[in-house]
Amino acid sequence: MRVAVVGGGGREHALAWALARTADVVVVPGNAGIARAGIACVPTLDATGPVDLVVIGPEQPLVDGLADQVRSGGTPVFGPGADGARLERSKAHLKQVLQRAGVPTAASRAFHAGEEGAAETFLRSQPGPWVVKTDGLAAGKGVLVANDVEGAVADMRAKLAGTSFGTAGRTVVVEEGLTGPEVSVLAVCDGRAADDAVVVLPVARDHKRVGDGDTGPNTGGMGAFSPVGGASADLPDQVLETMVLPTLHALAADGVDYRGVLYAGIMLTPDGPKLLEYNVRFGDPEAQVVLPRLEGDLAALLASAAAGHVDPSAIGVQPQACVGVVLAAPGYPEAPVTGGKISGLDQAGPLAFCAGVAEHEGRLVTAGGRVLCVTALGADGHQARAAAYAAADRVEFEGGVLRRDDIAATA
Ligand code: AMP
Ligand code: GLY
């Protein structure tokens, strides 16, 4: 089987690496680090030659309808169409679908530009913590969780004015503040709304805040691990029954054929698991720690889902734990300083997944906020963590590495 993976980040590197065990893989456009790892990268889908399957990594092309376009050309695609991708494109739409489907989630209200007064009154009537989300895509950075109402009001005003997130923020969703540990559950869906239409992958957790101890602003994710100690053994079934299947039924009622990953971001609250968000793709960096734990034939799994009847026997889960540490450029997330030479990558093991990496004068240099996700397997969470940090310690960026030192500390 020949598979094209669309995207150029660490998630796509991990997907390409895992798919390459059983398939011939080309990444579009990929990045210099993926190419350096021996995986073919081409600039456009037109340049891949014939492929049997297209796997779309990031949300933006899904939102833009790339899956619809490729499917209408006759090639099977793993990734939802623009109609399914609306779950991630618009938090206001997401909340409507969740309400209709009866999925447990934070109470919320949407406000549009011009409704600042009503939004402020609503915020001030809430007990806090106060949560203000951009309706549109914001690379994981559009959510403010504030412990003071003044900060929440100021953030809401900046978002609605378009100053902080452009048009993505001109509608906001104000949510009830929930508390509890978070987990990510990735469900592979084949377009049907049936019990056997979904394969749930191992539970993972990412670390969204930039600083140790979960401090500082939200990022795209500073590291991840799987499995997650403390998540109950029946969590995947619970997520399937109370979240994913009701959502697929609601989507089907709207005529949406959802073939791809439905990524459930979940908070384990004192009142039980609640859905914070859906993403319509593999998580980044969750993919980097979930995919190495799969054995079997990932290409067959994704191809069967893309063909409308997912085959759970294509993969198994091996017992080892996996930890991934993101190495970011200094200044991330606000203003990453890029262009620094990367050294030591060859000593970081086979699971050093490359994201913001480019080639300059024959050398790899940093070219984005999140540069690498250095990942390792181990017999348990402690061993995987030690191995991941040992590998991460071997990598340096000219100008410095920004990373967290407490990834998977609770694994
Ligand atoms: P989201 O993009 O919706 O997953 O939000 C990003 C992060 O903001 C989540 O991972 C949570 O840490 C936090 N968050 C989102 N919604 C809430 C909420 N209702 N209550 C508390 N924290 C939240
Ligand atoms: N790790 C969070 C995300 O992929 O959106």
Structure description:
The protein starts with a strand and ends in a 14-residue tail after the last strand. Strands 3-2-1-4-5 form a five-stranded parallel sheet, sandwiched between helices. Strands 12-15-20-25-22 form a five-stranded antiparallel sheet. The protein has a four-stranded antiparallel sheet with strand order 6-9-7-8, with helices on both faces. By secondary structure, it is α+β, with helices and mostly antiparallel strands. The model has no long low-confidence stretch (mean pLDDT 96). It folds into four domains: 78 residues, 3-Layer(aba) Sandwich (Rossmann fold); 70 residues, ATP-grasp fold, A domain (Dna Ligase, domain 1), CATH 3.30.1490; 136 residues, 2-Layer Sandwich (D-amino Acid Aminotransferase, Chain A, domain 1); 77 residues, Glycinamide Ribonucleotide Synthetase, Chain A, domain 4 (Alpha-Beta Complex).
Which CATH architecture of the largest domain? 2-Layer Sandwich
- How is the largest sheet built, in terms of strand order? 3-2-1-4-5
Bound molecules: adenosine monophosphate, glycine
Briefly note the structural class of the backbone.
alpha+beta
Mass-distribution shape:
globular
Q: CATH topology of the largest domain, what is it called?
A: D-amino Acid Aminotransferase, Chain A, domain 1
Strand content: 25-35%
CATH superfamily of the largest domain: ATP-grasp fold, B domain
CATH top-level class of the largest domain: Alpha Beta
Q: Which bin fits the share of residues in helices?
A: 25-40%
Integer-rounded radius of gyration: 20 Å
